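Attaching the record inline, Q. Sequence:
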Amino acid sequence: MAIQATKAVRKQVKVRVALIGPSGSGKSFTALRIVKGLGGKTLMGNTEGDRGYFYAEEFDYDIVDIQPPYTPEKYIEVIEYAEQNGYDNLILDSGSHEWSGRGGLLEIHDKMPGNSYTNWGKINPRHNLFIDKQLYSKCNIINCLRGKDQYVLEEKNGKQAPKKVGMGAEQRANYEYEFTATFMLDQETHIATAMKDNTHIFEGKYDVLTEEHGILLKKWANSGAAQASTPPTTPPPPTIEPVNWPAFWAGVKSKLGYSEDDVHSIASAMRKTQITSLSDWSREEVAELMDKLKETHKADQETLKAMEGQAPSGE
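Structure, as predicted:
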C-alpha cells in the first residue's frame, strides 16, 4: 500500500451520543430533548414496548418497534431504514438488548454448541458490524443503554438509604467508548456526568441534558469543513497496443507454413463463426489465435509422421 500523508482538516461530522443509566434515570426523555435541539427528522428504534410512545405528545418523532430476538441484524436494518428514508436523527432505545436482551448476542452465544471460546469468533463480526453501522451512519445517533444497576448506601436525612446507581452499560465491555460523548445519568436528579467527551462541551459540567445541549452539539458537529461528496471517477480506457500485422503474417508463413486463408479457417473454427479478417482483433485475441495455430501445426506434423510410417515401402 502506498502511504501518502495529508494535512489534517476538521470536517463536519454526525454526533454519536450514549446515555447510560439505571431504570428511571430519564434516558428516553433526555434523548428526545437532545435530538430536538439537533433539529431535523427523528426516528426512534424502540425495544421498550409502550414506553417508546410515552412522550409522543411532547416531542415530534417517528417510531419503529424492534421485536425479539434482538439480533444485531435487526438493529442494522433500522439504521439503514433511517438513512434511506431521510431521517436526521436516530434514537436506539435501548441498545443494550442487542447484547443482553432476549435473542441478543449473549443468548445466541450460550446456545451455540462447541467450544465457548472459539464460538466468540462467530459472534464478534456480527457485533462489530453493528458498531460500524453506527460509527459511519449518515444520521446522528443517540444510543440509550441500560445501566448495570447496583445499590449503594447514601446518607439521607441523617440515615443510610439505598440508592440505585449505574455501574457501566449493559453492553459489551468498552462499548461506551465508541461514541462522541457518553453520559451516565443519575436516577434521582437526572444529572448527566460525562464519561467521555470529544467535544469538550461538557468538561467539568454536571447538568440535566436539554435541547440547549443538542444545539451545542449541532454547532460543534457543523463547525468543520463540509465533506464534499466526491463523484465517482471513471477510469481512463486501457491503452490498446496495435498488433504488428506484418510481423504476425511473416511469422505465420515462415514458421508454420500457413496462408491467410488457412489462418482465417482456423480462426473460424476457434470462434465457431466465419472469420474473413483479423484487423479488429486485440493483441490478447491474436496471442490466443497464435497458440491455436501452433497447436494445429503440431497436430498436423504428428499426423503426417503417422501417415509416413504407415506408407508401403515400395518393395
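Residues 19 and 144 are 5 Å apart (CA to CA). The radius of gyration is 35 Å.

More tomorrow.
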